[in-house]
Amino acid sequence: MIKAVMVMNTQGKSRLAKFYEYLSVEKQQELIRGVFSVLCSRAENVSNFIDAESIFGLDSRLVYKHFATLYFVFVFDSSENELAVLDLIQDVLPSVFVETLDKCFQNVCELDIVFNYSKIHTILDEMVFGGQVVETSSSEIMKAVEEISKLEAASNAISLIPKSASGWRSR
Amino acid sequence: MGSQGGFYQSKEFLDLVKSIGEARSKAEEDRIVLNEIETLKRRISEPDIPKRKMKEYIIRLVYIEMLGHDASFGYIHAVKMTHDDSLLVKRTGYLAVTLFLNEDHDLIILIVNTIQKDLKSDNYLVVCAALNAVCKLINEETIPAVLPQAMELLAHPKEAVRKKAIMALHRFYQKSPSSVSHLVSNFRKRLCDNDPGVMGATLCPLFELIARDVNSYKDLVISFVSILKQVAERRLSKAYDYHQMPAPFIQIKLLKILALLGSGDKQASENMYTVVGDIFRKCDSSSNIGNAVLYECICCVSSIYPNPKLLESAADVISRFLKSDSHNLKYMGIDALGRLIKISPEIAEQHQLAVIDCLEDPDDTLKRKTFELLYKMTKSTNVEVIVDRMIDYMISINDNHYKTEIASRCVELAEQFAPSNQWFIQTMNRVFEHAGDLVNIKVAHNLMRLIAEGFGEDDDNADTKLRSSAVESYLRILGEPKLPSVFLQVICWVLGEYGTADGMFSASDITGKLCDVAEAYSNDETVKAYATTALMKIYAFEIAARRKVDMLPECQSLMEELLASHSTDLQQRAYELQAVIGLDAHAVACIMPSDASCEDIEVDRDLSFLNDYIQEAIEKGAQPYIPESERSGMLNISNFRNQDHHEASSHGLRFEAYELPKPAVQSRIPQTLIASTEIVPVPEPMYPRESYQTTMPSIPSDAGSAELKLRLEGVQKKWGRSTYTPATSTSNSTSQKTVNGTSQGDGASTVSSMRETYDSRKPQVEVSHEKQKLAASLFGGSSKTEKSPATGHKAAKASSHVVEKSHVPKSSLEVASEKATPAQQPPDLLDLGEPTATSTALQLDPFKQLEGLLDATEVASAVNGAPAASRSPDIMALYADTAAGIHNKNDADLLSGLSNPSVTNMPGTTAMPQVTQSSSKGPNPKDSLEKDALVRQMGVNPSSQNPNLFKDLLG
User: Which segments constitute the AP complex mu/sigma subunit domain (chain A) (predicted)?
Assistant: First the structure.
């Protein structure tokens, strides 16, 4: 089961935090800080896995991926496979918001400022449901998200952020 | 791809995110956020906000809470949004509430109804949003409210909905298995869903169900195997491919399930061999996900009934993983290796260099995984190298959690495989020195016991050598600053016991060191207590050896300080020391026999030394002792009556339901009447109460100790430490039981149980710095002795476990009853909760006075039905519970009673005369008891809390 999904930047500021078991706001912050302190001490070119038992309690592993200025972090237990989760992070997440980046910003470092907060929540909800990974195909996820965004677009006359249609993939 | 426009974000929000991103300090960030909170608070409560704006405000709130600030002022608005008709607003509302609220939040009640409605919606997107909320917000109580709708959705035409409905049911199962246990069969049914996605989702709950109860799902093995086969053979549509792998996530889940089902089941496993073999062959090892599947295959192979061919394929994959440049794959390889060596230990050998590489890798994760592997493959031939490495690593890290883990592993390995005593003690010294405060106190006790007992061989010489080397090393270590408390306790104990034993060090050397310790760690009372007792031992041994004792000046000043200490324990130890020093050699030798920590303590459970006394009393007409097992009902009453005597020891809240009193049994109480303890002197005949009051003391130590023991049973400890404190026990035992030898108080060493766990075979392994040689020492030893000894060793390991186990319960039981009991006593004595009320009530008990004036029956009729009466059964039941506890704890009680001063002070001598006295005076006990019983049955109880009532009634 997935316990938490976090996105934070390299300064430890959280960009997204989703916990699949309820935790108080204070506890959430504590965990985020704990994760960051481990992440920032990791060298480059080491494995993407961390034993997270000292932060999240028994039977918890952590997989992270460093993109530009962001860390993507999944915390889960032994019923998931580390490599598979890493693949999810590597493939599914970036394809979603990097399109924005592609179009609007020259500088990859600003990635962490622009990603779309409510959209990434929608994407995660399609992908992880009640702590279980239910959808792993990024095209399926995008299809579902698209349906929602169509509705939304229809109701919004103004859109401040330019549309993009790139199918940029992370790898 | 998706259009960004769908997820509208205003300029303001982007600016907020941006400014927070650019904030240079936490303070600046906080200021920005607080500012934002003010703005939102103001705006959100404005009337007629357009929905689109409101949606954005809520998203901003979510963002703020994610940053760790309180956004609770907006929760209600989020809840309101879930009621909205517009899907988009509703979705945002649901998103916000799932992030804001927990399942027990007060506002949930406002959402349940909406969820119910939305689950029935025609729009599947609404249904999905509602199901999402169900997963997060429904608790055990609200499950029934949404369960029927969720069940219906299992047959929804849209597969996305079916999938989510299954996950929602799974969630219900996790939260309250009983609420959906009758629906579990639905998971099996959905396994046959047309849509592979839905089938894949079903595997999640099935995996959990199977993990809990394998046997009920054995029939599914064939189905799972055939599904896996179809997936692996690419029978699914291309849409499920992922990096050219057919539905890898489904494969992974299935392999996990098969691993569970095939574990230890030859028949089931045989069904799986072909398909797993196929996957090994076909799987693409160039992609991450392909390797994930391969890794899962290895896990499966190592879990199911072994198959040589599959094991071979697994070993191949492992070597590929280990040779890879990717740290991730190496990590998986090490992990897989750890699983496989359980079945085929020989494969570790091929990978020795790779393992050493991983051990020296800068990547912490990899290093830890490798240590885990080494831990699994430790045997007596490589234990020295491995434990050495582990300790080095332990010293180098700061993570307390992992430090604790690795320390306990070192201890475990050292205890199991130690090649020599010397090595064991050195290893333990290192562990204690660097992680002393993190290891379990039991480890320290084990070490003390080991030093005291030696290795179980009848070689006193070796034992003596062991002890002197320990003493020597401790004297050296004491020079280091800042040692952990636990380690100091061990050091003090060993120095006290054996410091002067071999004559190498003089008493003044050792006492000087001990005084230094007590001074240097002056705020650690436990260490001080250990040091004081050690001092006492040293002096006692000196006196017993008829040498002249000169107390060092620093020792004298320490004693002066301790004699005035706030800690009664330290005070007592100091006084004991003073007393011992004043005695002559013979007496001291009896009190403190040298090297007697392993002597068995003889506990005369029958108290046979009292026999003459009892005989005498019985001859004078006293009632004989009635064993506890034959007086169940009586104790209730005696306890109850004796509250004022034992108030100090009988308390704590009880949560069990009250029992009705059982008056009939009372007639068994021996009549032992004296009036001396009464407040009001009463003429004997009718009034049985006094008799109860004396029953307790008159049953010498049994009842007394039982009563004290009760306290430990039924009452929750509020302040007590559950570990044993050496403090109280030492003082108790030393002051009371000279027979025992004084040292037993200091540790678990009391009980002499031989340790057979130590493997004293000497492996001849050279440690060298070369990697090759390191590898040889880790793995090489195994190659020579691999085939048969490896298994032989396993057996040895297993048996040593058994031996250990068979010992531990015995010894720890005794230790527990002897040591833990007194240690736990103080908290209980303090735990006075409600008792004062009852006991004062008893003292003022009007009933007592009434009894002198009235016939019992009169009282009964007079007070019958009075409100106070309702209390009576309660108190009775209170003690009925505790009485029950007594019977189970017979033996332990005796022990605890013995070692507890408060009880032992009063047995025999004081209690017995009362028995003799009373028996002659006693009226017919049966009569009076029956009367009392009658009164009780009528609902009047002397324990009434309302004395005034009686006064009013009776003038």
Answer: 1-151
Residues in CB range of B495: below 8 A, 6 or more apart = B471, B474, B475, B510, B513, B514, B534, B538
Q: Which helix (H) or strand (E) holds A5?
A: strand A2-9
Q: Is residue A101 part of a domain?
A: yes
pTM: 0.65
Spans of chain B, pLDDT less than 70: 1-9, 455-459, 598-601, 632-770, 780-955
Residue A96 lies in a domain: yes
- In a domain, residue B140? The reply is no
Mutation target to probe the B interface, by most B beta carbons within 10 A, among A81, A96, A100, A103 is: A81
**A15 lies in some domain:** yes
Residue A167 domain-assigned (yes or no): no
* Chain B residues within 8 A of A3 when measuring between CB atoms: none
Q: Please report the pLDDT score of residue B362 as a whole number.
A: 86
Cα gap B131→B133, rounded to integer Å: 5
Chain segment B794-848, per-residue pLDDT in tens: 334 444 444 444 444 444 444 444 444 444 444 444 444 444 444 444 444 445 4
Q: Which domain holds residue A27?
A: 2-158
Count of domains forming chain B: 1
CATH of the domain at A40: 3.30.450.60
| CA pair distance A136, A133, nearest whole angstrom | 7
Nearest to B880 by CA among B645, B606, B656, B548: B656
Contacts of A99 in chain B (CB under 8 A): 1-2, 4
Strands (E), B784-908: none
Q: Answer whether B595's CB lies under 8 Å from B890's CB.
A: no
Between chains, do A159 and B11 touch, taking CB under 8 Å as contact? no
A155 close contact with B: CB closer than 8 A: yes
How confident is the model at residue A171, as a pLDDT? 38
